[in-house]
Amino acid sequence: MLNCACGGSIMLFSLYAPQFQTHLGYTQVQVNTLSILGEAGMYMTTPIVGLCADLYGPGLMSIAASVLFATAYLLAAWAYYAQLPYGAMMLAFLLIGCGTASIYFGSVTACAKAFTTNQGLSLSLPITAYGLSSLWQSQLVNALFIDHETEEVHVPQMFVFFAFFLAAVGAVSATGFYASRPRRRSDADDEVPLLGETETPAPAPSPLELVVEFASDRTVWAFALGLFMTTGPGEMFLNNMGSMIRSIGPGGPSIATNVSLISLFSAFFRILTGAVSDYIAAPARGYSRVWLLLFFASLLAFGHFFVAFGGAYAEHGRFFWVASLSLGTGYGAIFTLAPTFVSLVWGVEHFGLNWGVLFIFPAVGSIVYEMLYATIYDAHTHDGSLCFGLSCYAPTFYVTGLSCLAAIVTWVLVWEFAWKRRGIFV
User: Fold this and answer.
1) How far is 151 from 146, CA to CA, in rounded Å?
2) In whole angstroms, how far apart are CA 25 and each of 17, 21, 74, 150, 281?
3) What is d(CA 170, CA 51) in angstroms, rounded to the nearest whole number?
4) CATH number of 105's domain
5) How confident is the model over 317-342, as pLDDT tens digits?
6) Which among 99, 225, 373, 412 could bridge 69 via Cys, Cβ 3.0 to 4.6 Å?
7) Confidence of residue 351 (pLDDT cuts 50, 70, 90)
8) Considering the domain boundaries, does residue 416 fall inside one?
9) What is the sign, positive or negative, of the torsion defined by CA atoms of 338, 342, 348, 354?
C-alpha cells in the first residue's frame, strides 16, 4: 500500500507538460512522445516485470524501483535545467515508466497471491492507493513547486524532490517486504522419502511457453482489444488535459484541481468497484462483474463524447469537471476490474506474467490515441507552439468515444459466446 500510494508520480505529467513547450520549445508531438515513452517504460516492460514479481517477489521490485526513480528524475531535472538534447529527456521518461511498473506490479501481484478470498477488494485497495498517489502529490506540487503568480511549476526542483522521495519509499518498502517474508523450509526440515518413493518432478514450463499458452486463448485477445479501446483513450485524456485546458485560454479551469478531481473520484470508485464486484458476484446473488465493466465503459464513452461536442469547452471551461469526473471514474474502475478478470478467468498462479502481457495493450492504445491527439493538435497550431479552440482536440474525442462503444460490443461478445459457454463465472 505504501508503494502504490507513492508510486503514481507519472500521472502528474499534465501539470508540467505545457512548460516543455513554452520553456524548452518542444512541439506537441515531442511532448506526447515523452508521455508515450513513460507509458512504454511502464507498460511494455510488464511481461518481464510481472514474471520477476512472480519469481522473486515484491522486495526485489521495490529495490529496482528505488534505483530507477532516482536515476530517472535526477536525469530529467538535469535535462530540463541545462536544456540537454531531447534524447536525454526521452531516456529519463522511459526510466520513470520502468520504475512505476516495478513499484506497482510487485505490490499488486503480492496482493493477488496473498488474498484470494475477496479478489475484487484485495486488488482494488492497492490499485486505489496508486490512484490516490496523484491526488496528494498534485496538491503537494501545487503547494511547494508552483509559482502562483505565473501558474508555472518549478520543474527541476520538483524532479529532484521525487528522485530522493521515491528512492526512499522503495528502500523502506523493500525492507518491509523482506522482513515479513515467510521463512523458506530448509533441506533439513524436509522428510526423507522412503526408498522407492522418490519422484522426478516435471520440468517447469519456460516463460515463453507460459506466454504462448496464455496467448493461445482467443478470449485473451478479445479482452485485450477492449482494454486497448478504453484505457488507451483514458491515458490520452489524462496526459493531455493540461494542453486542453491551456487551449481554452487565460482564466480557464485549474489543471491541478482537475488532476485532483480525477484522482479523488478514480480512487473512490476503485474501492467501490472492488467491493461491489465481490458483493454482486457472491453465490447468493450471482450477478456477473461484466455488468460493471460495461457500465464504466459506457461512462467513458459519455465523457469522450461530452468533450467532442464541446461540453468541456463551453462557458470558458466551466463544465470541464464533468469530463474529469466521468473519464477519471471510468478509467479507474476499468483498471480495477481488469486484473480481477485476469485472476478469475486465467488463475493466480501466473498472475504477474498474465496481467503483465495484457498490460501492454493499454500502452499500445495510449501510443495510438496520443499520437492522434498530437497530430490533430499540431495541425491546428498556427502561431507559436500552443493551440487555442475546440478544433484542437474535438476530432480526437469523436474517435475515442466510438472506440469505447466498440469495446462494449467486444466484451459483450466474449462474455456471451465464450466465457458463458465454458462455464466461467466472472
Assistant:
1) 6
2) 11, 5, 21, 18, 52
3) 19
4) 1.20.1250.20
5) 889 999 999 998 999 899 889 988 99
6) 99
7) confident
8) yes
9) negative
Q: How far is CA 345 from the centre of its chain?
A: 21
Per-residue model confidence (pLDDT) at position 159 = 96
Q: Which of 84, 269, 268, 74 is nearest to 161 (CA)?
A: 74
195 belongs to a structural domain:
no
**CA angle centred on 109, ends 107 and 110, rounded to 5°:** 65
pLDDT for residue 386 is more than 90:
no
Work out the mean pLDDT of the chain and round it to a whole number: 87
- Taking CA atoms, 389 is separated from 142, 152, 211, 386, in Å, by 26, 21, 46, 10
Inter-helix orientation angle 290-308/394-414, to 10°:
160
- Asked whether residue 146 is assigned to any structural domain, the reply reads yes
How big, in percent rounded to 5, are the helix, strand and coil portions of the chain? 75, 0, 20
Where do the H-state alpha helices sit in 82-206? 86-114, 119-144, 155-179
Domain residue limits at 280: 2-178+206-422
pTM of the model: 0.78
Number of compact structural domains in the chain: 1
Backbone angles phi, psi at 30, to 5 degrees: -65, -40
Per-residue pLDDT band at 80 (split at 50, 70, 90): very high
